[in-house]
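Two quick folds needed for the group meeting slides. Do the first one here.
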Amino acid sequence: MTNRLAEAKSLYLRKHAENPINWWSWCDEALATARAQNKPIFLSIGYSSCHWCTVMEGEAFSDTAIAQYMNANFLPIKVDREERPDLDSIYMQALQMMSGQGGWPLNVFLSPEDLVPFYAGTYFPVDPRYGRPGFLQVLQSLRRYYDTEKEDLQQRKALIIESLLTSAVLQSGTTTELEDRELLRQGWETSIGVITTRQSGNSFPMIPYAELALRGTRFNFESQYDGKQVSSKRGLNLALGGIYDHVGGGFHRYTVDPTWTVPHFEKMLYDNGQIMEYLASLWSAGIQEPAFERAIAGTVQWLKREMTAPEGYFYAAQDADSFTQATAVEPEEGAFYVWSYSELQQLLTPEELRELQQQFTVTPNGNFEGRNVLQRRNLGQLSATLETSLSKLFTARYGVSLESLETFPPACNNQEAKTFNWLGRIPSVTDTKMIVAWNSLMISGLAKAAGVFQQPLYVELAAQAANFIWENQFVDGRFHRLNYQGEPTVLAQSEDYAFFIKALLDLQACNPEHKQWLENAIAIQDEFNEFLWNGELGGFNNTSSNSSQDLIVKERSYADNATPSANGIAIANLIRLALLTDNLDYLDLAELGLKAFRSVMHGAPQACPSLFTALDWYRNSTLIRSTTEQINTLIPKFLPAAVFAVVSDIPEGSVGLVCQGLKCLAPAESVEHLLQQVQQSQVRA
């Protein structure tokens, strides 16, 4: 027997449809029912490819005794964080305030009358273990607390809501040009410190930090770090490490070690888009390691083969776990990706295996539960022998050679994964929903790589996705965030607007003659300004005023996490639009936005690298006006604060004009003169 979630569009919600828990989705009826029955709300937030979310679904949420107590004493609500990042952000912040750390699954207990949290945690086992109480114990204790400790409950909630409101309302501020330069230096150095190699813990891509670290290498900042070396090292860890799938392409979410060896195996669209853009930027900055180009090309192959819908948009994610055989009860983490030594002996010749062991982390004992995750040991081009070996592994995994496999159909759920007649291994489940923000990050990655490597396929894939969003994501004149099999839903949030505008501007940058991308960006920006700009505090709210009545605070995203902050990207977009349109209203909004977040930039620079990237744009923005031919020679270069405009009326005897904010320099009389002006303009702050 199924519960309400059987009818949900979200794959994550449907995974809980057979739980004995009487789940609700987040809706007005659920909230009203909790109030009417005076039941505290149990809010559980996760996402489809989250490993520990899957574990808890199969354990605590499938336990009959837990379900009976939950249904009688709480109003259980399940939320997909990829559908509602606004809810996730607020209650994740509450968890971090209570426990000092966050993560998913995010399990929060709320008072029904005001939706304020009074307790939160992540994974709860069925029985006490791992130093964690059993889930039924937790439920019983919290219901008793809710019923008997009313005064303490109110005091606790008051502290939490006060903290949430304080963090949502920031003090604004202004600085001088000299102070801005020092602020930018501090933000740059902080970001370098964040991505400098550590000796313990997990390893995440953290691309917003790496991006700022790389941007800052063009300044002569005094620092304890070698910014170029640290930026390059981050790229090498990504392109050589086990976080990259050297057989099938695409990047996993993170590694569970500091050596970039063993990944947590899910593949998220948002990571792959950001990493592609970063590796392409490294190449354009002169760090032209062949592994970067190979990783980008392999990721595009994976994207086209496994993550692109027939309509042209990109799927959201692939799970970490997969079944080893159709009769298996539970999937295993990494099963689709790892190799036993005996398998490698069977698939490769002795010479091929010997060279694979010399160049990759391959041993008889393995590095992950007796099996091998491939991690490169050396830089440079892979030999023809190694490429042949990796092709053999591809064929063993997929059942078909790389050259003949154009499209690999997604397994949309566990049942499909177990019943389809796969020619090779059973693949991980793919979450096929379209998320505007994540598609936009991939469009930007493809556009950047297209400009640097001059690859038409990259532009083609990016343009198809951008056109799908533009043509399908408006309902009654409003932009929408998600698309399930042709049906748009959920009003767009700040990250959807900001990232899509950036994606359109990035497409414009790699083909400046195509004015339609710019026109679309202007139209989206107009709607963004109308519905999400915070006229009182500055910056953009996460959600529009007419879609956020159920939120206990109005947040403005300024902190970077696995994805960049919406306001950091949005402010940079405004500056780019001001340069390309001569509309200074955009620049006014950008100034107000930076002013709104100055206190965070001063007080917590480790939280907001994208705001420092926006400050870099504000201080060093450069417009290059020239012919198509001349601009095409500049597109592959590392010009992180420049935009291009194709013009036909450049002054006679010149090759182009370089403009700095509200002034233009003397016409450049030669290509060398133009490049000199551009380079100087990029570091004037």
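Then this one, please, same format:
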Amino acid sequence: MIFNRLFCNRGILFQNFRQHGWIGILYLLTLLFSLPLYIGTEYREVPQQITSLFQANGELQILFAITFPVAAGIFLFRYMQSGAPSDLFHSLPLQRKHLLTVNLLTGFVMILVPVWITTAITGWVWAVLDQPAYTFGGSEIWMWGLSMSIYSLFMFMLTVVVGICIGQSVLQGLTVYGILLMPVVVWFIFSLHLQNHLLGYSYEDIGFNAEKLSLVLRMGSISTAPVIRGELIIYLALAILFIPLAYVFYAKRQVESATQAITFRIVKPIFRFGFMFTLVLVGGAYFTSIAPRASVGWDICGYVLGGIVGYIGAEMIIRKTWLIWTSRLVPKLVLYVILAGLILYVPVADWNGYAARVPDISKVNSIKLGGDRYIYSNGINQKLDDGSFYSNDPEYIEAIIALHQKIVDTDLPLRDPVNPDDDYDENVFINYKLENGRVMKRRYNIPETEFHKELMAVKQTKDYKRVAYDTFKLDEDALSIGLRSSLSPFRKVYISNPEQVREFKELMKQDILDQTYEEQRSPWQSFAYAEMNQNSRSSDPYQPKEMWNFDIKPSYERVLTWLRENKLYDQLQVPVDEIASAQFVKQEIDSQGKAKWVYSDSDYIDGNSSGNKQIATKNKKIISDLLQRQRSGYRTEKDTVYHIKLNFIRGENVYMILKEEDLTQEMKAILAEQ
């Protein structure tokens, strides 16, 4: 009786539902619209098998889950933010814990019941549909209901706790979403700071994992990245933690703090530094991005300016006025600047040993070059097991450690390409599995010319080629292999005979593993491309087969000989007689300080974007030579390039590029004459 009268006061309950019940009704209607109505009316000729209901309009569902619970938290506790309503409610014959309990109970009903009703209706729709657009099991329905309940509860309780610490409703809502985005902003921009100032810092997983730190960003990935149990456990634990925190904070909140920006003195320095440090990072990142090449000090200017603006902005928000000058303003600013400076400096300081650390070969169990790989299956991006990508070959490990040691011993710049004029700047991503079970990662951008010997030692090992060129896939079964000319997509053949497929895979693997370092660096385009088709890993019979692509380079003699023997080479080779003429357009590239990519571009010739004179020839010798050499796109600051168009008698045309040094004597003679 006492519990019903005090903790679940019927008068306040009825008043809450009469005044704010529309939030729960709208939440229910939007959820019904975004899930059961969507899957019930969607039509697909071939049903799509999904492993999560968030793959069906999940972005909209998450949008509702991060807005309606926040609205419920703001409106239910709106009385705390206004002077007169705050005095009225706190003058009622109820203790604060009773008042908080009845409002929390109202909020739980408003945000959880719509989720549960939607889950039940979705189950009913799933059971009665004869021709569904999506196929899934009952566990997916329960998982959706559990996930949405946890997300909604987390957002509601976060809003309540923030509302107790904040004295204005608008600022309360902004702070809630600011808290959700702050971990991503701080992590992402702080990672840029480490990338710019810490040699070897590995930043591969920033973009992929950042979305998991915030429900706001989760909207963009919920349909392709599965909801994992660890994620739900964290959100549930935080939601449960917020409940006792709400009681503690509410018991200590003063009634007269209504309309104040920050209601607790202890929260003010946290808010001030958090706001300031975020702008410190943003300012440093922005000034670094706009800094002229080879300039120094721009990032420091950005940090200082961001800190000043951030501190002043935080003071204005807290005091609700721009008149913030006091004698204590500057000393406090200096204190916060020192603290922010230490946070920025300590991780990148030389004395912490991060940049110079190279593991001893005796402490390395295995090693991998390259980052993580992902595969798209059943509508979800899944990380591939990288166990097979690691190698414990002593020669391979020794070669990589030697490369790593030289990188550490060499004074390399941390930003900008090391040598923009060099076609072969190398991205080196090293993963060590150490004997203590930890994984040590390092990432570098190095000039090939300076590390030629060390790179050659690494890239000529079979373990490197096995992973870099996916030769491990050639050991697996294949349904068929499609071959397509690099010049003409219309010239293609298929190999489906099991014996021929086996022979082709074996020869391809041998040619790849026998490549020299110079052949791997070859600037010439491949003769053709091979597409290996395998059975899909997906349990969905309508999912497409898995496909793996391999280049057939001009240096692959075994494969090219096999193609000739099996009468397939000529079907891929473009005959000279099919080409009527070739057009040349010269391009002079001179962009010192700003390297650009150069690649074959049809607009450069057909659109005459350069305005340069076009030179045409019907010389069959020249055309034959062009068919044997097509340069891949490359990056440069200063060069002379020829854009070339091969005009076919029938069908499509072919575009390519050659550097001036690639031209034969006959080509130079034709160009010189005109």
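Slide caption for protein two: Residues 604 and 610 are 6 Å apart (CA to CA).
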